[in-house]
Automatic annotation (TrEMBL):
Residues 139-291 form the SSD domain. It comes from Candidatus Liptonbacteria bacterium RIFCSPLOWO2_12_FULL_60_15. Belongs to the SecD/SecF family. SecF subfamily. The gene is secF. This is Protein-export membrane protein SecF. Keywords: Cell inner membrane, Cell membrane, Membrane, Protein transport, Translocation, Transmembrane, Transmembrane helix, Transport.
Length: 305
């Protein structure tokens, strides 16, 4: 049996360091916002003409007055993703005609343009969405565990879940702040969706462990001490949590390596979040319950509590 509770300060220390580093990165660098939030145009083009290369496309865009364009090559079909300022439909048609004229057989595979005002509205809704999800999940957990009030009040499960979700969201966010600052990676609506997916996975994993703790407490095992009950519950669900996570991680790694370039950072955010969600459900959420209970009972939350 793994003594997770006995080493709780080590695991919480690792999490605390990662959270602190992430908060510093977010505060210092902020996010490089995608066109979804700041406004702009995403244009996907391709051509059988070998003359269409990243360099020649950049030169063409500069001729059209778009020197600050960001170009990404799509590995799957050899097309190019171009991120530029927001343009009107008239400008779009003129640029497309010029592209077709310069590169024979050039075709447009996708076009999306978002104005700054729409981007600001999407940003506002994204933040509100994440906030409502966090609060809603916490209230649901507190309600679901209402029948278990001793030795831990049901609302404490909700609060600990909220702290755990913050842990699982802020670390990927910090990673993207770092990647945006040094590698130009953008945080767009896909990133927000990835965070919501991570939150759903994390709370599911946490509920599995909490539910086993609830069952063991209802069976009267709290007489052996809360720390022992929690540790036993973690070990009873450990194999299930790891097996589920490993299966999902393998799928995500395959998508990361062989999937389309447009989904690379979306998959990366989910991959990091899944790993963190598994870690936090085992090594963060339950130890926090034990520590909180020890403080509330007026004891020092040491190795034996």
């Amino acid at each position: 049996m793994i003594n997770v509770i006995g080493k709780k300060w080590l695991f919480l220390g690792i999490s605390g360091a990662l959270v602190l580093a992430s908060v510093v990165a977010i505060s210092a660098y902020g996010f490089r916002e995608g066109i979804d939030f700041r406004g702009g145009t995403l244009w996907q083009v391709a051509s059988p003409d070998a003359a269409l290369t990243e360099a020649s496309l950049r030169e063409f865009l500069a001729e059209q007055g778009m020197e600050d364009a960001v170009i990404t090559r799509e590995n799957q079909n050899g097309s190019f993703l171009v991120r530029i300022r927001a343009i009107t439909e008239e400008e779009h048609q003129a640029d497309l005609a010029a592209l077709t004229l310069k590169f024979g057989g050039a075709e447009e595979l996708g076009f999306q343009s978002i104005g700054p005002s729409i981007g600001a509205e999407l940003r506002r809704r994204a933040f509100w969405g994440i906030g409502f999800v966090l609060i809603g999940i916490s209230l649901f957990i507190a309600f679901a565990f209402r029948k278990v009030s001793r030795p831990i009040r049901s609302w404490k499960y909700g609060v600990v879940t909220l702290v755990t979700l913050f842990h699982d969201v802020v670390i990927p966010a910090g990673l993207f702040a770092y990647l945006g600052r040094f590698y130009g990676v953008e945080a767009d609506t896909n990133f927000i969706v990835a965070l919501l997916v991570v939150m759903g996975f994390s709370v599911h994993d946490t509920i599995v462990v909490f539910d086993r703790i609830r069952e063991n407490l209802l069976l009267g095992r709290e007489g052996a001490g809360l720390a022992e009950v929690v540790n036993k519950s973690i070990n009873e669900t450990l194999a299930r949590s790891i097996n589920t996570s490993v299966t999902l991680v393998l799928v995500l790694v395959a998508l990361l390596l062989f999937g389309p370039a447009t989904l690379t950072y979306f998959v990366l955010a989910i991959l990091v979040g899944v790993i963190l969600g598994t870690y936090s459900s085992i090594f963060v959420a339950s130890p926090l319950l034990v520590i909180w209970h020890a403080f509330a009972a007026g004891r020092s939350p040491g190795r034996g509590n």
